[in-house]
Amino acid sequence: MMKYRIRQMKPSDVSSVVRIANQSFLETARLSWLIGYRIVQRLMSNRECLFIAETDRGDPVGFVVGELKDDRAVINWIAVHPSHRSRGVGGMLLKAIEEKAREEGVRIVETGTPFARPFYEKYGYKCVNIRRSMLLELVGRSISLPKGLRIRTIMLEELPVLLDFIGDENEWLRFAAAYFEAYESDPEKAILITNKDDETLGVAISRGEKICSELVTLSYIFAKKKEDTIKILNSLAYVVSSRGHRWLGVELPIAGITEEHLERAGWQDARLPFFWTMYRMRKKL
Q1: Nearest 10 degrees: CA dihedral of 119, 215, 248, 275?
Q2: pLDDT tens-place string over residues 227-251
Q3: CA–CA separation, 269 vs 275, rounded Å?
Q4: Is the predicted pLDDT of residue 31 greater than 90, yes or no?
Q5: Which structural domains are found in the chain, ordered by start?
Q6: Helices H / strands E in the chain, number of each
Q7: Helix or strand or coil: residue 144?
Q8: Distance between CA atoms of 119 and 207, rounded to whole angstroms?
Q9: Half-sphere exposure of 115 (CA within 13 A, CB side)
């Protein structure tokens, strides 16, 4: 039976870590440039919570990257090569972080995970927060503009007028930040919605995802009346669908829209490799 041991990560392990990440992660942490760059940065700055799992022959088969932050330890990434799963290797890596935390007088370990909640629960972690993300599949369904509404692109010159419409300076600044983020790459992703009397109901801004051009996510939404928020979101779905994208994604909470609203309209929990619901896990040592 193969035996495993844990040791501290070394610079010579970088290529093995990238290989394991490529074959283990469902999410975008598997991207070589992303994981490779960040591992190198961590090796340059602080190695105290970087560990490798290896066989008794010295072959790396798993890794964990963590850090100590104030009163807690945080696990950034943990992965085991598919050929060595279900043998307790992941538990050994967790134990390495937990022992390091205890040595430093830290009694809380936390992490966020989109797909590995059962793994952490197996080792005594509890879910303390859920950052819910939802997706609407635009292909294969009829997407129409809500009756009586009109859509147009927000022009730069309209920003002062929208300050009066939004009414709160800090809220307008959040809008403006999202607007200029969209303005840089795709100004048509910032839309203003009016009714048939040309009264402004609200605004919505979305952003295209760099990793997947078929996904567009909501970055800002505002409606003067909360009951109009769902109409604003449906208008955005119409625009995104018209441009040929496959998915529209949102992160909850959104004022004026409940999960039930979205589920009834066909939205589902987000579990794409590049857009997901995040579970915050915690263990008290």
Answers
A1: 20
A2: 999 999 999 999 999 999 999 999 9
A3: 10
A4: no
A5: 4-106 (3.40.630.30), 134-276 (3.40.630.30)
A6: 8, 16
A7: coil
A8: 33
A9: 16
The two three-digit tokens of residue 205, written as one number: 């801004």
| Predicted model pTM | 0.82
The 3-class SS string of 33-60 reads: HHHHHHHHHHHHHCCCCEEEEEECCCCE
DSSP 203: E
- Tokens read off for 220: 């800002």
Q: What is the pLDDT of residues 118-129, one digit of tens each?
A: 999 999 999 999
DSSP assignment of 229-267: HHHHHHHHHHHHHHTT-SEEEEES-BTTB-HHHHHHTT-
Tokens 């010295």, residue located: 58
What angle (nearest 5°) sits at the alpha carbon of residue 208, between those of residues 206 and 213?
A: 145
**Distances, alpha carbon 210 to alpha carbons 28, 50, 95, 125, 179, in Å:** 11, 29, 36, 33, 17
Residue 92 burial class via C-beta count within 10 angstroms: exposed 0-12, middle 13-18, buried 19 and up: middle
**Peptide linkage before 114 cis (omega within 30 of 0):** no
Q: Which of 19, 37, 21, 41 is nearest to 29 (CA)?
A: 21
Compare 110 and 273 and report the one with higher pLDDT.
110
**Residues facing 136 on adjacent strands:** 248
Of the candidates 202, 206, 165, 203, the one whose C-alpha atom is nearest the C-alpha of residue 187 is 206
Q: Please provide the size of the chain in residues.
A: 285
- Identify the bridge partners of residue 152 per DSSP, sorted by sequence position: 192
What are 65's two structure tokens?
């990257």
